[in-house]
From TrEMBL:
The lineage of its organism: Bacteria, Bacillati, Actinomycetota, Actinomycetes, Pseudonocardiales. This is Anti-anti-sigma factor. InterPro entries: STAS_dom_sf. It comes from Amycolatopsis pretoriensis.
């Protein structure tokens, strides 16, 4: 069983909290909803015990094109999945993703 909870935005911050094994489509919808009207999104994946390649596929573009700052807290399962896919530097506890406009490069 999996759950995805979206709260906020309150004071410009929304939270997306996933637990279990979130479906890729559900995660994408939750992130799309959370990034609307929020300047910061806290993406809490610490309760995720199974993360599919499909979920990774929807997560990366959502993070990079969110239009707001996204702060990710990841479980060992999420970190492991990204590492196995050669994306270990993208998601780790407290990693911050910024929009292209926020980057200095």
């Amino acid at each position: 069983m999996s759950t995805i909870e979206v709260t906020g935005p309150a004071d410009g911050t929304a939270t997306v909290r996933a637990q279990g094994a979130p479906e890729a489509a559900d995660l994408a919808a939750a992130l799309a909803g959370a990034t609307t009207g929020a300047s910061t999104v806290l993406l809490d994946l610490t309760g995720v015990d199974h993360f599919t390649t499909e979920a990774v596929a929807v997560l990366i573009p959502q993070l990079k094109g969110a239009g707001c700052r996204v702060i990710v807290a990841a479980s060992a399962a999420v970190e492991g999945k990204f590492t196995r896919l050669g994306l270990g530097g993208l998601v780790a506890p407290s990693t911050e993703f910024r929009t292209r406009a926020d980057r200095s490069d």
